[in-house]
Amino acid sequence: MIVLNLLKQEWLKTIRAKGFYKNLTVNIILAICMLYVVAMLLLLGFGLGSILEKFHAFLGLNPTELFNGTIVYIILFGVLVRLFIQQLGSINLFAYQMLPVKRSIIVNFLILKPLMSLLNYLLLLIVIPFAITSVSNYYDSATAFRFVLNMVFIIWFNSLFTAFLKRRFMSGFKSFILIISLIIGIIAMEYFKVFSLFTTSISFFGYLLDHVWGSILFLLFPVAAFTLNRCFFARNYYPEYFNQKIEKSAMGSPTVNLSFFDRFGLIGDFMSLELKLLLRHKRTRSLLYMSVLFLFYGLLFYTNSVYSEKDGFLFFSAMFVTGVLMFMYGQWIISWDSAYFDGLMTKNITVRHYIKANYNLLIVFNAICFILTTPYFFFGVKIMQMHIAAFLFNIGVNTVILLFFSTYNTKRINLSQGTAFNYQGTTFKNFLVVIPMMFLPMMIIGILSFFIETSLSLIILAGMGLLGIMFRKHLITLCVKQFNKRKYTLAQGFRETE
């Protein structure tokens, strides 16, 4: 009963929050996107059996056995993704310390709270249709039920074990590199046939699926992960650990040496401060890690023959990977400073210096992403041309659009929270700006390709970018005027806390 009351209080806290209704439009847009994702996953689930049937002829494995072979990889990939997108549960411990609520109940609630999120169970949208259409055909209904139940236990294990890893070791760049290295090592062993996790996974999980008691063993995985979390809290029962607000002191926190920017004067100082903000705060750091992952987004298009002749989709991919950090950071290029915006406006700093520093910072982000994505040039001259055209278009056009329209985002951003599935500070205006920026060039090149050569349409888009670079002073002046018009509205909006 107490746990139900705690869940009810969490729900009331959500719907009574001032920001819940302010973000109603964003929530509606996200709900529509989520319905689309649900529909796609269901279609994949119903079609997965027939897709895996194609491998049956030359592998000699039925669809269920093939799925069992991927379970280890599903677990590893789930832990990797959750390390960067799963937020740790928190509770206002001070409000319950004076109430007759046992410590064990609060700890259990805090550990199990992430399991209540429906996002955890998106995988079941694939698993349940697959069990109905394929597993039940090769085995029986009881085996299909156990198959779904086992996957639920795996989801619980992933969520609980990831929460333990984040609490115990925290999430940072070192853990990111460690996990990526582990996955690359496993893939390398599989590729060079040193050790096959795929074969081991087929044998182990297939054996457990064939026996009724196998589900009990599956249940032991989340129970073990739950026990690890309990042991952690037994040693660290402090309010700071509950709410994950441990902050390094100024003396103990690592310093970032960006003296390179000192040579650029006041603008360089601004850029240095923005980069330190990016590297030191949780929300901006997690955004940086996500940007690194999105650099591989081009592989979905460039390795798929379906898109080889669809120039619009290829250019969309090129523009996204060469400017992913610009798009993700630039949407809130002014809002990142919301916590100290009033102090910034009282300093003896010209608006032109402030806007120009942000403009140069977006160009630096573009240049970094462009350099990191140059290996895509091995996919051919056409991809190389698209990346160059997209790079110029991003610098000359999209940077200015982001700077101009970022003045309309008046919501304060909490830098101490993570980025993934965190829409605090997001409004429908973000969608109205980014969607046309991403899809309008895609439509332009798609239409032009019907009438002229692809290379000529790329030259037109690259020429638009070059014009933006040539007239950057006038465009920056336009952004300065827009900022001066909106700065008091921005300051008022940034003072409001949700």
Can you offer a commentary on this structure?
This protein has 498 residues and is mainly α. The chain contains 24 helices and no strands. The chain has helices at 2-16, 18-22, 24-53, 56-59, 63-85, 93-97, 103-112, 124-138, 141-169, 173-191, 197-210, 214-235, 239-243, 265-280, 282-294, 299-302, 311-322, 324-330, 341-346, 351-372, 381-405, 428-448, 454-470, 472-495. Helix 5 (63-85) runs antiparallel to helix 10 (173-191) and helix 5 (63-85) packs across helix 11 (197-210). 29% of the residues are buried.
Please describe the structure with a list of short key phrases separated by commas or semicolons.
mainly alpha; 498 residues; 24 helices; 73% helix; 2 domains
Q: What's this entry about, in short?
A:
This protein is mainly α and 498 residues long. It has helices spanning 2-16, 18-22, 24-53, 56-59, 63-85, 93-97, 103-112, 124-138, 141-169, 173-191, 197-210, 214-235, 239-243, 265-280, 282-294, 299-302, 311-322, 324-330, 341-346, 351-372, 381-405, 428-448, 454-470, 472-495.
